[in-house]
Amino acid sequence: MRMSTPSSPTTSPTAFSAAVAAVRAGRPVDEAADDLLAQLTREERLWLLDGDLEFWPGMADMMTNGYNLTPIPMGRVERLGIPGLLFSDGPRGVVMGKSTAFPVSMARGATWDVDLEERVGTAIGRELRAQGANFFGGVCVNLPRHPAWGRVQETYGEDPILLGEFGAALTRGVQRNAMAVVKHFALNSMENARFKVDVTADDAALHEVYLAHFRRIVDEGVSGVMTAYNSVNGEWAGQNEHLMEGVLRGMWGFEGVTVSDFIWGLRDAAASLRAGLDVEEPFRQQRAQHLPADLEEGRASWDDVDRAARRVLRTQLRHYAALTEPEPPLDVVFSPEHRALAREVAARGMVLLKNDPVGDAPLLPLHRDALTSLAVIGRLADVANTGDNGSSDVRAPEVVTALRGLTEALPQARITHVADDDPAAAAAAAAQADVAVVVAGYTAADEGEWVGGDVLADPGLLALFPPPGDDPAGQSFASFLAEPGAVDSISGGSAGGDRASLRLRPVDADIIRAVAAANPRTVVVIVTAGAVITEEWRDAVPAVLVSWYSGCEGGRALADVLLGDADAAGRLPYSIPAAEEHLPYFDRDATAITYDKWFGQRLLDRDGRTPAFPLGFGLSYTSFALGDLTLSAPDDDSFTGVVTVTNTGPRAGRHVVQLYGRPTGIDAVADDFPTRVLLGFATVDLAAGASARVTVRGSTRPLRRWTPTGFVPASLTAVIEAASYAGDPDAVTAPAELALA
């Protein structure tokens, strides 16, 4: 019988704790894992390969009481003290309990600061471990080929270098206290069609673009890889042997554990095991139902079982043997320290897109002492809006809204809030205020993880559920789920999914224009995760700030930025086009789609389209100049660039230096290769008038193309430039090209 309560490997001497001690003392982890495996019965070996909770009770609890409120256990074996994989989701914090809601990953990507992201990872790992989990499924790095993707908020940006470096930083931070899991492997960037779509991509697109960041995180030592729901080149990702055994383990040398996405992550228990999937998540489902017969009839072998079981054991042994930090107390969860970090991150990531003069100076930052009245406009200004309501939802005990943050920061000012979709009322309030702040954008009803009830109208997905058997509770819940609208009622009608539009609502545009006409000192604050096209109203206002889904301290962070207590330091982690037709084809209900190399800034460059805002763009409250770029010779996959950064403005500020490479002699269309690629980045804080030499680590991997024999340089040399954004006309070019071969 499976154990029913979590067990720590350190509470009493067990076979597992002895194995951990032996590994710490120098015994090879493979030997220790083999010894443990030899002590397991065949039944216990199968226990390692899926969740511990029975399916129907687990589903009922998850869908009625709440998702992942406590650790979800997989593969615990009480007899030997094996703790198992105790799952908690992410990535904007720990979804268990009442944890700290950090800004969404895309907002953190906008900081371009991997040291800050590592600090976030450390905080998440501490909160996770304090609540009894050890397995964090929140390193989400799927590349958003199209900004309408509903879960774009869970990833860091459009570029493989950004995705890889931020995923590696989060992994480093989390793995001080827990095993980190990177997801979703691979080509998961459509939400409504995620259970049915087959994504086709050739090897060049896969290795140059869609797998490159996963490789970087595997190199960092991530403990787990979660597969995707979708099919890749004709095979479901959860049973795709080429991806798991061929690429992940064969090419990259991954030594951790592979796990399925939840409930619908595989379609054939034996096929998934043979293909290299180690654990079916999160409950006893297809493997518990089918694997014993599959083994008996030869559709899978005990060698397959032992291969997976050995990986599960080895991953846990490596993790526990490496732990050096003491177990955090429970009061670390939503602690003042973590709330302060959430505020710092939120402020750091906000991106100032426009800041025109009003009178003799730019509108922002606002001057606190001169503000006697403020109009705060919009339905979202006083809403706790931290992101979607799916598996990444973090239930923070308190969320500081934009209205509250500004009210706290301006106790002397008269603040008027207009929440209704009423342009006339908004304009009237704005006309009576020194400054108007319009908060507009999206909620979980517009974008997020898709939890629509028609999932359970699909007979193919329903067939993956085990029979409810004689359990009355299981029979009752199975009957409930079969009713029309059942899942919608559980989710509160907030189905999320891929965005239907890349623009604000028409009424939001009307409100913005009405407010700007009434008050020339108008700031528009956009709540979003993905790109928002602003062409129909941006000309009317002097200032536009992207505030993202900014976490539990977002309102205070917004006040910090608007009032200049923090510099406007965020930079776009993606490009924003001027029109929808400048983007790749996207059908959110597709059953088949082909992904090529062309998306985002790379596609705009290839087609000669001028973006509304390029990758890496963002204004500061000061100004910076770059000069004197020098390069080191490439060493394996990397090189360094050193550039002088000078703060030429009136106040202290923070700048992001971006290294781009332009392979020589490349024609994007003829050569099917980008003409400019991001290679690295670094941040620097400078006082007014100060200069510093900044070292930026660059990767040469984006300058290579995939061939049947592996990667080769796309050109013999590349021009390297230090820039403030992609295509920056003031970029500084190194005096000599970088030799790549």
UniProtKB/TrEMBL annotation:
Print the keywords alphabetically. Answer: Hydrolase
A Pfam entry, by short name = Fn3-like
Q: Which residues form the Fibronectin type III-like domain?
A: 655-724
One annotated GO molecular function is:
hydrolase activity
Q: Which InterPro entries match?
A: Cellulose_deg_GH3, Fn3-like, GH, Glyco_hydro_3_C, Glyco_hydro_3_C_sf, Glyco_hydro_3_N, Glyco_hydro_3_N_sf, Ig-like_fold
Q: Family per UniProt?
A: Belongs to the glycosyl hydrolase 3 family.
Cite the PANTHER family for this sequence. Answer: BETA-GLUCOSIDASE, BETA-GLUCOSIDASE B-RELATED
This chain belongs to which protein, by name?
A: Glycosyl hydrolase
